[in-house]
Structure to design on (528 residues):
């Protein structure tokens, strides 16, 4: 519960604007909830007017806000780094993820949580970290918008971390288990894994509610002729009929159960495949093991029988998250609408202990004001001391500056030498492995070079000569071609060659590089 704040407004800005008022005084209670449609050209105006109206309609007198903005630059990543002092950890994380970020890392807001600390056999310590970052200017824009109404932003939160607090607070029987969370909203879907109530894995999925609706709007030719649903009809089929489990189910006299399943099948199967890939990656990369249960969240809770479909496809206990009897909600609020927004509500629970992307300049503004008043006297005294000291220190400044410049030069040279040595050692190790191996390495590389299309760029090729296994990572530029087709052809060509067997796609996800949309991929293979 937010210590010292009896109430908060939760402002969730996504394709729609969702506003809550949460009261913490006697018990946690949702006193009001409002959802407003947003348009890109009037987004700021709608947010301001809706917030102003929401505050007036509900007689809200406090100024506390939990903000969850839509952030195009958001990155959530799990990494492992060598242990460093706490004061250096933020910079160490930035250095580690610099290849995954296309924008200036000096202008980002970064926060992180240490999942665990381990010690290797050689005595070195490793930090396992989940971190989140986004562009500072993108976040500040929304915080400044709230300040126009005199509101005080306590937290800029991210939905996956809201589920941490939901599990910890309301799912006590589950919090010591390993849980998967499938969140589907209108424009995005993601799969996250929580162990002991802490986020350990996060992956954006290429499936959303909009994808399911689009599959229902595709043209179907039947014995009744050409069938094409409107937007409203597709919405009704998805949320009122859902995924039929009985052949007697139908939508009006337009579609029977088999036709509905056939229209949804490709997207549903893609969803199941992506979840399986996520589970396999989590287990192989982080030794996470098998999860105990999958919780279905977000707008997906409105889809009838989606939990039954996934339970069958994944062979895992799958159920919808449901907290109606655990949270007090005003009678005026639709409980199903609230259920779709549990994650945003979770951000308000113990917000000081969660990932916070609020820029430092906006934090603890009242404390900073008192600090500035005290600092004026402190600064005056320090000025007098330094004024006297300057007279004596000025004579040695030039000498120290020369020494510092020389030290910096030596440090840069040593850094370059160390980097070069690391690359040479890696190359020598690779050459030694190739020489000792009986595998036709030259032929393999030549074949790989020959079958790689120009639209597909390889980032990394690794090969374990002893186990005859390896990985390929890279990306496909998606501006003038079909990335999926290019990647599928590349996989086919690899499998048709004589050098590769058991070729598997571990992960595929969209991203951006050099202002262009690309599809990143990770492939595992074996050699005969």
């Amino acid at each position: 519960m937010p210590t010292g704040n009896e109430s908060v407004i939760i402002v969730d800005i996504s394709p729609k604007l969702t506003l809550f008022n949460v009261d913490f005084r006697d018990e946690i209670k949702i006193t009001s909830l409002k959802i407003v449609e947003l348009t890109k050209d009037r987004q700021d105006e709608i947010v301001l007017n809706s917030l102003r109206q929401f505050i007036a309609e509900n007689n809200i007198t406090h100024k506390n806000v939990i903000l969850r903005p839509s952030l195009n630059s958001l990155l959530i990543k799990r990494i492992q780094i060598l242990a460093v002092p706490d004061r250096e950890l933020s910079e160490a994380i930035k250095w580690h993820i610099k290849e995954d970020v296309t924008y200036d890392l000096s202008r980002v807001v970064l926060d992180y949580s240490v999942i665990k600390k381990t010690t290797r056999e050689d005595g070195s310590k490793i930090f396992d970290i989940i971190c989140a970052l986004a562009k500072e200017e993108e976040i500040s824009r929304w915080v400044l918008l709230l300040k126009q109404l005199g509101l005080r932003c306590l937290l800029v939160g991210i939905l996956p971390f809201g589920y941490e607090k939901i599990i910890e607070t309301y799912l006590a029987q589950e919090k010591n288990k390993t849980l998967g969370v499938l969140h589907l909203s209108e424009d995005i879907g993601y799969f996250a894994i929580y162990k002991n109530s802490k986020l350990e894995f996060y992956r954006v999925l290429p499936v959303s509610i909009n994808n399911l609706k689009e599959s229902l709007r595709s043209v179907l030719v039947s014995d009744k002729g050409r069938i094409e649903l409107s937007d409203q009809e597709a919405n009704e089929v998805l949320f009122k009929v859902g995924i039929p489990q009985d052949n007697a189910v139908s939508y009006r006299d337009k579609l029977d159960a088999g036709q509905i399943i056939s229209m949804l099948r490709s997207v549903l199967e893609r969803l199941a495949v992506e979840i399986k890939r996520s589970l396999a990656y989590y287990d192989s990369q982080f030794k996470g093991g098998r999860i105990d249960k999958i919780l279905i969240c977000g707008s997906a809770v409105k889809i009838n029988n989606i939990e039954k479909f996934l339970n069958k496809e994944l062979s895992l206990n799958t159920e919808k998250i449901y907290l109606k009897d655990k949270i007090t909600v005003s009678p005026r609020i639709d409980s199903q609408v609230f259920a779709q927004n549990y994650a945003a509500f979770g951000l308000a629970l113990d917000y000081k202990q969660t990932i916070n992307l609020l820029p430092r300049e906006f934090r603890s503004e009242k404390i900073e004001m008192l600090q500035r008043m005290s600092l004026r006297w402190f600064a005056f005294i320090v000025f007098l001391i330094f004024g006297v000291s300057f007279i004596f220190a000025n004579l040695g400044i030039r000498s120290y500056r020369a020494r510092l410049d020389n030290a910096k030069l030596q440090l840069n040279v040593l850094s370059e030498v160390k980097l070069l040595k690391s690359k040479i050692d890696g190359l020598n190790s690779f050459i030694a492995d190739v020489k000792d191996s009986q595998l036709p390495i030259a032929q393999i590389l030549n074949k790989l070079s020959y079958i790689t299309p120009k639209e597909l760029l390889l980032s990394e090729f690794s090969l374990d000569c002893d186990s005859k296994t390896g990985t390929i990572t890279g990306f496909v530029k998606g501006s003038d071609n079909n990335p999926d087709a290019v990647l599928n052809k590349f996989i086919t060509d690899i499998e048709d060659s004589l050098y590769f067997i058991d070729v598997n796609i571990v992960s595929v996800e969209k991203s951006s590089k050099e202002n262009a949309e690309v599809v990143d991929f990770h492939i595992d293979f074996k050699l005969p």
